[in-house]
Write a structure and sequence with these properties.
With 572 residues, the chain is an alpha/beta fold. It has a domain of 149 residues. Helices cover 45% and strands 11% of the residues. It has 22 helices and 16 strands. The strands form four sheets. Strands 1, 2, 3, 4, 5, 8, 11, 14, 15 and 16 form a ten-stranded mixed beta sheet that branches. Strand 2, helix 5 and strand 3 form a beta-alpha-beta unit. The protein is globular.
Amino acid sequence: MNIHPAAHYVDNFFSGKITELMRKELILQPGVSPSELMAKLISRLATAEKALGEAQASTDEMLAKFHEYVRRGVCTLGSPLLTNIAADRMTLGSCAAVPIKVNNLSPTDFDLAEEYYNLNMGSGYDLTDSMDPCGALLRLNEHAQRVETSGTCERYVGNIAHLDVHHPSVIDFINAKRGREDIIHFNISVDVDDEFMRAVTTESDVRMIDGTVRPSSEIWDALVEAAWECGDPGIISLERYNSGNALRDSLPYVTTAPCAEVGLSPGETCVFGYINLAACLRPAPRLKMDLDLVGEAAECLTRVLDDAVQSSLYRLPVPSSTSVMAGKRKIGIGLCGFADALLWLRMAYADPQSERLLADVLATVNYRSKQASLRLAERRGPFLNFEMSAYRRDTAFLARFGKMDTVVDQQAWNALAGDVARHGLRNVMTTALPPSGRSALLLGVNPSIEPYLSLHDGTDWVTPVRSMRLTGDTRLEESSGMVETSSLVRDAMAGPSSGSSIFRTASEITPEEHLRLLQLAAGLVDDGVSKTINLAQSATPARVDQILRQAWDAGLKAVSVYRLGSRAARSV
């Protein structure tokens, strides 16, 4: 008896269970079914396609393919987009850099923030211009709570606030969430740079924005202690984000999305879509990842998300958002179901085989989405700021992805970079790795590229293990790539697993393994990666110190840690 993993995800999106979930999560309005939601979405995309001059036959073919991918559980759009479609809102987006004046928050600023919240967007705030960043954080958090309580938005209001490490109030900001549970609408991070980290390494002083000098160790030790105690703050580096920003000279990043997966310029928004890797497994002649399907889904999502950008133009809260969205057309294709795919494939998370698989998948999504964006640019025109971008003047900017050993080699990236320099790119970026929490739930898989926190979902085993249990002692055919089902179930139910087990959960995977996979993923996407470094409850502050230093040395743009039991969960 063969198990075909992809079959487990067919029609999930339209099932009664997912309908109930979407109603609970307020993604669906009362009386609206998933089928009606999809009809609304298809209609909105078709309108955008027409405005962009696409031939009707081409539009019909693309939308039919997209609908089929959703039906098969291969991909979906971000839940904020789906929520806004269901509610008949015209603006589609996943995150935003709200352009407010944090140094002197006024009712006008709060009104503007509320407009973005009511569009179900997570938001990023740089508090460095504020003389009282902790006070600004508290006021913004209280306002977010009022907006959520008012019921004017369907989505949890999740944000990030960060502060330059050289700000004189940085230690107060670092400690802002220690010993309190009321700052629930903000993750917080400290924006560090090479200068500060060199000072930490050499145990020397740093100069603050106000001209005073402080020991770097005082700031670093406070950061480590707070992260150990409550999971906040994380560290980000806008300096590093901007090194990968194709428009860093004209539109530098000033903040990030709530989980640091993308950098954002003032007023910028981004739209996300996700590919479910568990639904991209090919059952014969041997169970394996269908990279052709992954690539085709990436191409389809590139066009769909560009249509979503088009549908949202001129409907954003302020002209600056419209300008930057039109000028960059930023989209982000992410992943989910990676851990599920590994269970089906009997691969251990973070071993060389699974890391190679992830590298090939990410390279495929990145390359094929850039190819699709190139073709869109030839028909629809490149993003408006293309001529001043790094893509135009430096082919090495795009060709950098070929440095890693993947299924897409350096020669292919070089050729693509040359084509892009000549003909343009429709979207300033195409890939990201957001958390994908609610979107992954709609597909019945684990979020993003994270390992499982548990092999039990509260009511039953997760889908791959559940299927293995239901088959009892049936021996699967060798061509499926599986082994005897009963042995899989015994492994899954045996409690804490050994270092070589395919059933290791997030807390059983070492921090170094988490970091290694994070570093790999970060090198194959345009901006950042939302991924937490999980630590055992017994981990010491010294261990947190070690992990944060390792993350910086690995070249990461952002990192956060979560010590088991230190708090219920990070805010977003």
